[in-house]
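Troubleshooting entry. Yesterday's outputs looked truncated, so today I'm pasting the complete records for two proteins to confirm everything comes through intact. If either block looks cut off, that's the bug. Protein one:
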Amino acid sequence: MKFTKRRKEINSKVDLKKEYSITEAVTRLKETSKTKFNESIDIAMRLGVDPRQADQLVRGTVALPHGTGKTVRVLVIAKPDKQEDARKAGADHVGFEDYLAKIKEGWADVDVIIAAPDTMSELGKLGKVLGPKGLMPNPKSGTVTNDIAKAVSEVKAGRIEFRVEKAGIVHACIGKASFEPQQLEDNIHTFINQVLKMKPATSKGQYVKSVTLSSTMGPGLAISKNELAHH
């Protein structure tokens, strides 16, 4: 295998077999993120759960104290009486039948859809389109709600949704390489603590098997288990 110069430089700074503290990992990722664009910093937690069991499906939301650094494009599906609130709260797109028609035609130029409960009977029919894209609003993730304005501002401020995938892994973007180290650390601890809180009662054995931090183009760094105590 031929390594690029950049990769060699990264490998010299990073020991892939080593387990890092969160502070060390953040320092390393900031050092190795030298690409032209502002890379995302991602976390992956491998959990000892069986996501095929409904009672072991770890999913929820967490408000990252410093947001993700990404601009989140929000569509609100609501009837006219709630549309003005949604606009004031900063939603990028607001509507009802007009947007249902656009989605049916394949439009999906948004990151999150927030819906008023009284629109779900209509919006629910688009499950085949929205489900695979991960855009279907859901009461559990706070995206089907009567308090549209609050949901919009929380999502805009850095509330993210997570759910365990088939292989038992939970992924999330927890910031950008340009963040201050302390901001990344706060976000990481907040995320880990939220996932720890969601441990299913029926989950047996070790709940968190491994935690890895990585930047978009960089290597994954294993985080030491000692870091999983509540902060």
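Protein two, checking that the full record survives here as well:
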Amino acid sequence: MHIERHRNMRKLLPLLLLTFFLASCGASKRSTTYKKRTSNKVESTSSPNSTVGKIIKHAKSFEGTRYKFGGTTKKGMDCSGLIYTAFATEDITLPRISRDMAKQGKRISLLKVQEGDLVFFQTNKSRNVINHVGLVVYNKSGVLKFIHSTTSRGVIISDISEAYWNSSFVQARRVL
């Protein structure tokens, strides 16, 4: 009986891990429907020597890095790992999980978002929990862009006006 239970648990473990993976960092089939942009180059208006400028520059150094659950390096990065790593370069410690990051700093209106602020999303509509985070890298003339890591395309810069991100947006927070 004990051996049979152990075998059943070994069969369930991969299923549980897959379920957890799909619920993290913006996993969704909808995330693959974006149109390719002609250019992802976004120039930050923050001073490159300011704290915000350095955090953004470090986050952008991971553009193109593939997605890896729990990743925090060029070999692979998840959404909260990207934010955690970028802020750590300036000795700012944030929680490692996006839903815990969403409790830090001050909640702000999307209209007041600045470069360096965090934007949070709920991409799994069957679970009422924040599971994705991005770092605002540009906000000018009504155009708000953020860097993040997606399961389908890795570390990219997206526009909050894209239908998927706009409908998944939950809140913005200022931690600096």
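Both blocks look complete. Sanity check on protein two: The two ends are 56 Å apart (CA to CA).
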